Structure formats: C-alpha cells, structure tokens
Amino acid sequence: MYVILDIYSRYAVGWMLATKESAELAKLLISETCARQDVQKDELIIHSDRGPSMTSKAVALLLSDLGVTKSLNRPYVSNDNPFSESQFKTLKYQPEFPERFGCLEDARNFCTDFFEWYNNHHFHTGLALMPPGKVHYGLAEACNEQRTAVLKQAFAKTPERFINGEPKGLKLPDEAWINKPKTEEERSSIVATTCNGAIIGDVR
Asked: Long-range contact list for 50-56, CB < 8 A, 24+ apart?
C-alpha cells in the first residue's frame, strides 16, 4: 500500500494498493496526487522512508521535474515518520480489518471505504477532534464556531453540569513537524510544515 498524507491536516491526499512495490507506481501516484491537489513548483516537501521505490532514480527525476523537495528518514530509524505510522495503525486496528483479504479487489474495496471514513468522518485526536478533510479544505474554523455555540447553549441551559465552568472548544495545532528542532535558530533555518505545506508518503 502506498499512502500520501498531508502532515498538517492528516488528510490522505493519495493512496494506491498494488501487488508489489515499484518505482513506476510510486511515480504515478505522486504525479497524479500533485496534479489533483494543484501543487505548484517549490512549495512541497515529500518525506518518506528509504524504500527502493522512493529512493529510485525515476522518482528522484519526477520530484525534480515537479519542483518537489525530497526528504528521507534517517538510516535505521524505523519510527522517523510518525504521522504515517499513526495512520497505518488506525487502518490496521479498524474493527472491520480482516485477518486476510480474499483478493486484491477485496483489499481495494476495504481501503476505498476506509479512506473515505478516515478523511471525512474520523474525529482525529491530533486535530481537535476534527476530521482531516475539514482541516485540509479550510472548514475547521466554521466547524469550531458551531461547536462553541452548542457548548454555550448547553452551559446556559444546565450550568450545574459543568463543574469547571463554561466549556471551551479545542484548539487546532498551529504547526506540524517531523523531528522538530529544539531551538528557534534551528527552526528558522528549515521549513516548518504549516497548513498543508508538506506531504509525507509511505509504502507498506
């Protein structure tokens, strides 16, 4: 399985299921995803593991043509892509995830349903309980305003139920990082991944 995530919104902007890992398939998925998401040159970083498809010459040339910066996991660091690790865990821990799939088409059907749910209905704990799709497409602020209005109504109606006072809505993170630098000087020297500014990809 190939998956491309936006690391800020956690939105799965592209995915593909195949019988084998291939540089050509990775190239196809990346190019189609960049076109669908209207990615312009020099505005994207793709972070991935050091698998053969992502380190291939074909993918390197494609990223160069697209103006995409390539970033790779540190050698021998298996958890250097935490957003992707978390997304795959969510997939595999679904109650409906079978012990085995009957065929490739079964797996694709399952993944089609999963990613529709994950992107549009999964209340993500890292996103103030917003579905990734609302964050990715700029709908989170309006959703938060609605939630705040409902909380205020509930508090006005039965304040005794809220022992800590009037409840407040959760706040979305300001930024997302992979291996966040410890100092402000280090942070200013590299690209922070803010609001759909970077994508990570992974293959399992």
From this structure: 50/75, 51/21, 51/203, 52/21, 52/23, 53/2, 53/21, 53/22, 53/23, 53/25, 53/26, 53/203, 54/26, 54/201, 54/203, 56/23, 56/26
Residues in the chain, overall count: 204
pLDDT digits (tens, 9 = 90+) for 74-115: 777 666 788 888 999 999 999 999 999 999 999 999 999 999
In tens, the pLDDT along 16-39 reads: 999 988 889 989 999 999 999 998
| DSSP state, residue 176 | B
Q: Which residues contact 104 (CB under 8 A, 6 or more apart)?
A: 17, 19
Look at residues 77, 27, 86 and name the one whose alpha carbon lies nearest to residue 52: 27
| pTM beyond cutoff 0.85 | no
- Pairwise CA distance, residues 168 & 14, whole Å: 34
> What fold characterizes domain 2-138+173-203?
Nucleotidyltransferase; domain 5 (3.30.420)
Q: Where are the domains of the chain?
A: 2-138+173-203
Q: How many degrees, rounded to 5, is the angle at CA 23 between CA 201 and CA 46?
A: 25
Residue 64: C-alpha distances to residues 6, 42, 86 (Å):
20, 10, 28
CA distance 90 to 79: 15
